[in-house]
């Protein structure tokens, strides 16, 4: 039986690319940096994603990521570099204020709330994630939130998952399901922790042979059927 769901937030419950674009463009306006067209957003998104992968591998700290990504981005774009820390704060404020649900995830969590325990597990910035969960209302349907900054470790490290498992109670691993979009943080982390994994894979990408992925879904609402079939 599945009794506990561990949800990733960005690109799983919430549409991060859509919010990332709006937040970056809004910060550009606030700092009078000129236009931020789609191609510029795409270059930032690629750069930012690379930094998050470095964080997952333990090559940089969260503080370094949040500052260096904008220092490098402005250099690459040939733009006058404002205070990177101030720009980052403004950008993060906009990230937290904008909510775009994926697959009506708000209704999904509400419907599953009486059936299973639900927790968020995220590498995202604490400042942003707490604001997102409050503003979106998703926090209402969660039994707890685990953020890497407060745990002192990032997914996919066991140092992230071990305190999560200790905190949620004495559930057998087979009673827990981790749902996320990232192969490198969610699926790899779940494998390390011995937690069954559900890959949110809306594009239908092939499943890597080196990962144990129990469920491969295109729409989050397939989790309803998974839970119902394991009751």
Structural description of this entry:
The protein is α/β, with parallel strands linked by helices and 231 residues long. Helix content is 50%, strand content 11%. Strand 4 (176-180), helix 9 and strand 5 (197-200) form a beta-alpha-beta unit. Helix 2 packs antiparallel against helix 3 (62-77). The protein is globular, with a radius of gyration of 18 Å.
Question: Which helices and strands, and how do they pair?
Answer:
Layout: E1 4-7, H1 16-30, H2 38-56, H3 62-77, H4 84-97, H5 105-112, E2 117-122, H6 126-136, E3 144-147, H7 148-151, H8 158-168, E4 176-180, H9 183-193, E5 197-200, E6 215-217, H10 222-228
Parallel strand pairs: 1-2, 1-4, 2-3, 4-5, 5-6
Helix pairs in contact: 1-2, 1-4, 2-3, 3-4, 4-6
Pick out its properties.
231 residues, alpha/beta, six-stranded parallel sheet, 10 helices, 6 strands, globular
Can you summarize this structure?
This protein has 231 residues and is α/β, with parallel strands linked by helices. 50% of the residues lie in helices and 11% in strands.
Strand content: 5-15%
Number of strands: 6
Secondary-structure-based class equals alpha/beta
Distance from N terminus to C terminus (CA atoms, Å) equals 5 Å
Overall radius of gyration: 18 Å
List the uncertain runs.
Answer: none
Strand order of the largest sheet: 3-2-1-4-5-6
What is the oligomer described by this structure?
A: single chain
How much helix is in the residues? 40-55%
Order of secondary-structure elements: EHHHHHEHEHHEHEEH
Taking the sheet with the most strands, its summary is:
6 strands, parallel
Mean pLDDT across all residues, rounded?
95
Number of helices: 10
Write down the overall geometry.
Answer: globular
């Amino acid at each position: 039986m599945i009794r506990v769901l561990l949800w990733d937030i960005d690109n799983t419950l919430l549409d991060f690319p859509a919010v990332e674009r709006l937040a970056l463009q809004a910060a550009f306006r606030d700092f009078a940096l000129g236009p931020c067209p789609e191609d510029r957003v795409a270059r930032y998104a690629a750069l930012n994603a690379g930094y998050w992968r470095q964080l997952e591998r333990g090559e940089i700290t969260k503080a370094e990521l949040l500052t260096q990504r904008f220092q490098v981005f402005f250099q690459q774009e040939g733009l006058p570099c404002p205070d990177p820390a101030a720009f980052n704060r403004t950008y993060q404020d906009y990230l937290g204020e904008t909510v775009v649900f994926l697959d009506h995830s708000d209704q999904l969590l509400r419907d599953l709330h009486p059936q299973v325990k639900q927790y968020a597990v995220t590498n995202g910035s604490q400042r942003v994630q707490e604001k997102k969960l409050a503003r979106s209302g998703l926090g209402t349907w969660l039994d707890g939130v685990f953020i890497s900054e407060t745990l002192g470790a990032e997914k996919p490290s066991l140092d992230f998952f071990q305190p999560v498992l200790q905190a949620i109670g004495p559930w057998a691993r087979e009673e827990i399901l981790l749902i996320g979009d990232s192969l490198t943080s969610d699926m790899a982390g779940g494998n390390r922790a011995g937690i069954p994994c559900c890959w949110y894979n809306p594009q239908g990408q092939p499943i890597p042979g080196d990962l144990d992925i129990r469920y491969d879904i295109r729409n989050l609402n397939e989790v309803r059927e998974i839970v119902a079939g394991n009751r």
